[in-house]
Amino acid sequence: MKNSNTVHIGIDDTDSKYGMCTTYLAYELVRLLRKEVDFLDYPKLIRLNPNIPWKTRGNGSISIKIKTTNFGRLKTRIINLVMGLADIENGANPGLVFYYNDVIPNRLINFSQSALFKLISRNKIKQFLESNDVDYFSSGNSQGLIGATSAIGYQFNDHTFELITYRKKSKIGGVRKISLDNVKLIQKKYATIFNSYYKNRILITPHGPDPVFYGIRGEDVKSLICASKLIQTNEHPKGYMVFKSNQGTSSHLDNQIDTSKFEPYASGTITGHISTIPIVNKGGHVTFFITNNSYTVKCISYRQTRLMNILMHLLVGDLVSVGGGIRKASKKHERVLNLELLKILKLVKHVKLANPKCKICNKNMKSEGHDQGFECRKCKTKQTHKIIINVQRSIKCGTYIPIPNAHRHLTRPLQRLGVINKNIYFDNTIPWFHTF
Ligand code: ATP
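The joint structure predicted for all components is written out below.
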């Protein structure tokens, strides 16, 4: 450990689809540390590349920044806590990273960016950490070190917050009962909260056997705490913690996909012209191609995104930017971009040929048969050719995203389009951690 008494603790891969949640582990870690250390920021919940194949749910990783004079003693307790709670039996491969400096070096920042945009091989992670003088502990295949390192290295350009409430042990696995009307009211009262419900579906409660009761997402900590006090439920949760997060920022799309490589599992955007008009496949998925001078890319939008109504009006030549992840090729399918975001940048004119209008009577002229020209039935005026008319486009330039039910944690909701949260002040007087 170096002289500095700032420590960044990164954690990942502690859960499985049968239980646990890395955010809950972070809650327990803060509970353990809170009487002994100073917190220098809100705990970070960083969603990494959502297109990697082995994530449990939302590819979330955690980091916590503390100040302490005696980390040596605490480190063993932290490792014991993580190893005690991680669902190793069901395949969790926990990674813990400790970085003993206030300033995060560029190599960690760049590593974190790669983990947001690409798939990283775990083969060299230990070597990377050692060569950068970063302390770590891991178990199993050490996959968790990738997320743990990236959570520490993540730099926010924009952020949101999530208040996550945790269940008591006796309730884990049971149905989460929260009233929809109540959630609707809360969303109405706090305009800075987003994606709490869509139509008649509650979006703040997960469905698995993990310890999360509900999570409310929004722009500021105070509103989230006030909103959580208004949630009506018979269940008595264990406590809550507020995380600062890149959720709702679409930061995984701030990357131009390298179309010369078109690497599987990469996330980002590609710009090009529509080269085939979108078609609807069996199951309601829409496929189309975009092209530029050097590449042609197949894109697919799944039915659940409900983007069909927009996509079906695109025409060859329209300029678009598509965001999403590259799906690996299979025996049946080539590599495709799974569409998460559509920006229509420029629409071509939609023109079509039509029978001419009579200049005298202003009536549509009738065809006299193939290559026979046209005649006005009323005044018998003749004309030889069809005319070109402009058809009004039924879509507009703009940004289109899937419906909230189909959002990923990282998806920037419509409510946040153009919003950048610049308030980086850490207000430790606000009860961002609470046990009931
Ligand atoms: P939850 O969101 O419930 O915490 P999860 O979806 O985050 O679960 P994990 O069990 O943490 O899933 O598994 C994700 C694993 O992938 C972690 O080991 C993490 O270190 C690793 N990982 C994250 N990003 C990348 C990446 N870009 N390339 C390779 N591995 C990655």
